Amino acid sequence: DSTIGKDYLLQEFGNRDYSKLSKHEKDLVRGVNVLCEFQETGSLLPVKEQTVFDGSIGQLMTKYLSYKISLRLKRHTIDEKEQHLYRFLCYLNEQRITSVNAINQLHVLYFIKGIDPRFSALPHMTMRTLRGFFSYLYNQHLLDIDLSGMIPKDNFHKQAKMPSIYSQKEIETMLAAIDRGNANGKRNYAIVMLAARFGLRASDIANLRFENLHWERCTIKFCQYKTGKSLELPMLPEVGNAIVDYMKYGRPKSNEAFIFLLSRSPYTPIHSGAITGIVHSSLVRAGISIDNRKHGSHSLRHSLAGILLEKGTILPIISEVLGHKNTESVKFYLRIDLKSLRQCTLEVPSVAVSFYGQKGGYFYE
């Protein structure tokens, strides 16, 4: 039980200020919190790399990121740009380059060349970030030469991969395996229900508030985090019952407007990364093979699309259920509808017997 960890820290340190703890004491607190995180979600989330933008170049990078934030870019997009710029800043520091006007094309090229080749998209994303950064500096008259035009174009194309899906039977097995005899289980069951029955994204489940539940109309209505598009769905009885069970018997007492909370004090809203971990651990504990398949919450979104296609549901309906802006996005799932694809197969034409008896010609040269 994660409350044991909380009680231990309270007994050991009381209400002492964390910033005034020794390094050993801070390590102890972090260790207990990691164990609590694993107890709640079934997985350990990666710790975000600490970024300190020091020096004059670092200040310009911070200014650029603030500009991007003012354009209301998504938080994860800002985080990605921050990581790309931070790695470039570390490289420049290693080269003892302290002025932005001392940067030239070779510095950029050698930096890109040093990126781990196992991550094919990383050089592309890094170059795109650096182009934007240098273009911003030049337009703001902070850089004498526009280096953005000197960064070469690459031929990277994001390859559309086959969506990872789980069968209806596997999903039901996963749901049945969740232990609803405790608070965490009740919460996890409701979360997985929302992902499996509605195909909701982890970000939307994490951001779900009480005001989004319209019990009198038996609907769930919210604005999607990714698209900004409003989505209204019918409150399926099994989903509604799972949410009510968590609210009455599993949710900590809190004034938070968000429905799903972490089960340890101070009972803050759950984050999308934890939801991905919950789905992963639910699949593993149910004994479902995740080999060569994605195993986060988005895999349940793909699975729902596959199940609807298998039942003959038309694309506009699937698009509406999943909250896509248009049906073009749903065409991504057509490749997993093997039942319908088989109807499109063409008969292989027979080969004349004379073909096998011929002598000479292209195939014999």
Describe what you observe in this structure.
GO terms for molecular function: DNA binding. With 365 residues, this protein is mainly alpha-helical. It has 15 helices and 3 strands. The protein has helices at 2-13, 23-41, 55-70, 75-94, 105-113, 121-139, 168-177, 183-198, 202-206, 237-249, 272-285, 297-310, 315-322, 338-342, 353-357; strands spanning 213-214, 219-223, 230-234. A hairpin with a 4-residue loop joins strand 1 and strand 2. The longest helix has 20 residues, at 75-94. The chain is globular.
- Summed over residues and divided by their number, the pLDDT gives a mean of 85
Instruction: Tell me the radius of gyration.
Output: 26 Å
Q: Identify the CATH homologous superfamily of the largest domain.
A: Intergrase catalytic core
Spans with pLDDT under 50 lasting ≥5 residues? none
Structural class, judged by helices and strands? mainly alpha
Organism: marine sediment metagenome
Protein name: Tyr recombinase domain-containing protein
Keywords: DNA recombination, DNA-binding
GO molecular function: DNA binding
